[in-house]
Amino acid sequence: EDPRIHDIKTRIRVVPNFPKPGIMFQDITTLLLNPKAFKDTIDLFVERYKGKNISVVAGIEARGFIFGPPIALAIGAKFVPLRKPRKLPGKVISEKYILEYGKDCLEMHVGAVKSGERALVVDDLIATGGTLCAAMNLLERAGAEVVECACVIELPDLKGPGAIEWQAIVCARGVPLIMADDA
Ligand code: PRP
Ligand code: MG
I need a labelling partner for 68 at 20 to 30 A (CA). Which of 62, 112, 154, 183 fits? Predict the structure, then answer.
């Protein structure tokens, strides 16, 4: 394993019982406080995706907006924000998805992605995989080819409707950097 990965892992703070009892929250803000670990995180993705003819990096609100743009700049791709509902001012396409508790939705501006473009989806974490699956669906509906999903952390303990299926779909094309020990 790349020694940078071990260091990155030590910078992620695990907060028990946040935001509710039983959840081990993976806090990436402590990783961001260390410029070397933050840069190593971006570099590991850039090393993987540079030269792969990727023209779109799509970041998922909110924490995909932290890791997506530096990767996009480094590989010479455009950045497309996938936002929570009613945030984008232009015409959008939407994709609903199911969370462990409740529902949510991602939206993308029509015209942000052209048919046939090669896209990378970026987020901080995969739990059930529902969020990344919705993002992949949005891009594919717009005619893009999703090359991979890049996220920093994978939670091993999956729950919720569709969790195993979604995770399999995403992980077939994804690369979490770090597996959380205890979710
Ligand atoms: C968290 C995390 C991922 C998603 C993963 O985001 O940042 O985006 O959950 O969960 P899943 O694999 O089960 O779909 P959250 O929806 O809490 O919002 P935030 O990023 O805006 O804080
Ligand atoms: Mg998120």
Answer: 183
